[in-house]
Amino acid sequence: MPIPLPLPRIHFYEIDDQTWLPPFIRTKVQACLTLFWTKRFRPFQSTSPASLVARTLQDVLGPSINDYTFVDFCSGAAGPTAIIEKEVNSSLRSPSQDPKPEHGVPASAVTNGELRNRKTINPTFANGAAVPPPAGVPFILTDLHPHLSAWRLASSSSSDLHYIPSSIDATSAPPSLFSLVQPLLNQQQNPRTFRLYSLAFHHFPQPLARSVLRNTLCTSSGFAIFELQARTLDSVLTVLLLGPMLWLGSWWWFWGDWGHLFWTYVVPVVPGVVVFDGLVSCLRTRKAGELMRMIEDLTEEERRGWRVEWGDCRHTWPCGEMNWFVGIKEE
Asked: Cβ atoms within 10 A of the Cβ of 44, count?
């Protein structure tokens, strides 16, 4: 069981957020974060964290996952979204819609990747009726500062991964957001939008986070917040291990990128930023109860029709935890 830190949420500065950080360093730090999201590190992980997000969405939403267009906010350089899209749609197109890890047992029965401590407020479950495999659930990349070159590359490998080239502010996304992507999608696809915040929500200071939640509840039909860390001793220990991991593996993972290797081994700025920002992220991450109180502070009209679920699951043995918080509007 994770050991909580006896600290309130602290919104300290992350180096990667600062405008003075050279872009070439930021690019290398983001490459490391993408690696941690999308790569499975055997034998400590039964699946990659991005795949675990896909499984969690399928487990929580069930057959209703077909009803949404997923809009990823704060997409950065596309991070885990391309993997999440691939995993979700591959599973939906397969004969069985019950995703299983490589060892052949249900995801809910394994140590690494189990959905534990799941809590629901006003639960409403699908009836489990079989549905025909869909053509594909669409995923949309958005950001305040679009990374167009990275998005073009990511979307080129899938007909279900798209992007909005204009700037999208998560605090004031327009109710007509879906109209911006409708020309890219099949006319038969449902315009209900489901917002994703993958390793992003902890970046918002409290006033901004309230604005993001208010806009989310007013302009979407669902949302999910995923964090790979928490305010726990377990998360702190996991983050501290990232430095030695980068030191041992970067020569293999980033071979050929001599600038990356220079700023890892000769001047170890990249692992230093990754570890420092990871520790700050632990202090910034909100607990489920804190997110619930933020929602309860909204008006009754803004909250009407929404139910929420939350939980956690292990992404890395022995102490890496993914926390998730999902809201669904019952229409």
From this structure: 15
pTM to 2 decimal places: 0.86
Question: Is the per-residue pLDDT at 185 higher than 60?
Answer: yes
Q: Tokens for 183?
A: 């020309």
CA distance 223 to 219: 10
Residue 64: what pLDDT? Answer: 92
**Greatest alpha-carbon span in the chain:** 58
Q: Which residue has the tokens 């999902």?
A: 326
Question: Where are the strands (E) in 144-221, listed by range?
Answer: 161-163, 192-198
Q: What angle do CA 8, 13, 19 make, to 5 degrees?
A: 160
What is the model's pLDDT at position 126? 42
Average pLDDT of 290-301?
95
- The full length of the chain comes to 331
The H or E element containing residue 319 is: none
For β-strands 68-72 and 192-198, DSSP reports them as parallel
Per-residue CA distances from 308 to 60, 156, 327 (Å)? 10, 34, 4
The mean of the pLDDT values for the chain is: 86
Q: Which two tokens stand for residue 11?
A: 């919104």
Per the CB < 8 A criterion, the answer to whether 110 and 101 are in contact is yes
DSSP, residue by residue, 250-288: HHHHTTT-HHHHIIIIIS-HHHHHHHHHHHHHHHHPPPH
Measured CA to CA in angstroms, residue 186 lies from 57, 70, 85, 146, 149 at distances of: 22, 14, 17, 24, 24
CA distances from 213 to 263, 274, 330 (A): 37, 27, 17
Distant-in-sequence, close-in-space partners of 318: CB < 8 Å, separation ≥ 6:
none
192 close to 61: Cβ distance less than 8 angstroms? no
Q: Assess whether pLDDT exceeds 60 at residue 74.
A: yes
Residues 6+ apart with CB under 8 A from 162: 138, 139, 140, 141, 155, 181, 184, 185
